[in-house]
Amino acid sequence: MVSTRYLIPMIIVTILALVPTIIHSYIGATIIDGKSVAKISTTLNNFNSHPSNRNKTWGMDIFGSEDWFERDYQNDHYKKVRLFAARSYDHKRLYHHAELALSYGNSLTSLGVIYFPDHPDTPIHILKKDNNSLLVAYALLYNNSLVADPIVHQLGDSMRLLFSASKPMTLLYASQSGPFNINDLEQSNAVSLLIAAIHSFQTQVVSQ
Questions:
Q1: Are 41 and 22 contained in the same domain?
Q2: Running DSSP on this structure, what letter comes out for residue 95?
């Protein structure tokens, strides 16, 4: 038999332990911030776009996302950039080797996170093929801010998630085929279009 003097503390501890389970497993509480990747401009840096031919359920199947698109952007010089954008409450599905699905069949080397001189507060993740025939630039956003290290971010956010509803993470992933100047990546079509997409997303006006 449990002493009555321990009964109230035990009840409090039990209730606190159940709160995260109730929030995430039973209620499935999420925060909707009013933003959507679908509102990212279809014209960026004089590149016009059209949707790719992905299956309508592909974004949900691969990334657990109901808010996603993949567009092919092209300028007047026939330079092309493919932009994938998705939001998901399952953060790991976005940040954990997204290139395996989005650049399927290509062996890519990571150049890490780069802060370009003209955008010193914008961490851009860079991947490329060893023969410089494919360049990938992507960014992760959470709470409208850019994330340089998603694992550190998620560890830091874990305590808040114990007692709060989930917020979505956003992935913006730009890729270009063909040669590029490895010494001037900031001027590449993939990086410049990605930065324009980030700006388009961050500056969305959300109705209160």
A1: no
A2: H
